[in-house]
């Protein structure tokens, strides 16, 4: 199964986000892996599934996403998953429960309740802004506030906020589903067993939403590969997509060298 790493990608976003929020990263990943297939799926309650009710447990979210993947035939070759934050938790659970379907995963700024305290998993400094933006009625102002919370580049805030406001207007995530996803993430305790597949942790040291210490804790517990960006925030692919691609390419190359695949 290791010879499939980097050939069949699945991208999973995080809290209240959908496939559209990957922006240019999907195309950048495709350019970096021109022979690969690139897929995106939405979590229940977001994107094309925004009318659904989000489960309040990661395992149930995983089962729903996995069923959609199977219906589309995506795991015809084992998947290499890129999971951001909540998407990383879904990927972790999927690898534990159905290891034959995922050959490797890169987890971006994710966290596990079993090894990191709640005030690191949602940094206490972000509480006032986080709950204020949830109640913001104007889509543009709301998305602009989200960008300024999850990203540290400021050169395209207005442009991206307009794009994200359009997404929210067309496929709105309800406040109820937002809290359901928060509850699912807060409850997720996968235990002491890590997935057997190769794992890469990517962390933005400038993450103001989830403390980088959460990625550090996962790395320390299971001695996983961790690569840290010096200034990027929670949405690492938005802040520095090229750096993220380089880490993925280097990691896939490493795995190929270990298995003797050119």
From TrEMBL:
GO terms for molecular function: hydrolase activity. InterPro entries: AB_hydrolase_1, AB_hydrolase_fold, Carboxylesterase_BioH. Keywords: Hydrolase. Pfam families: Abhydrolase_6. Residues 10-244 form the AB hydrolase-1 domain. This is Alpha/beta hydrolase.
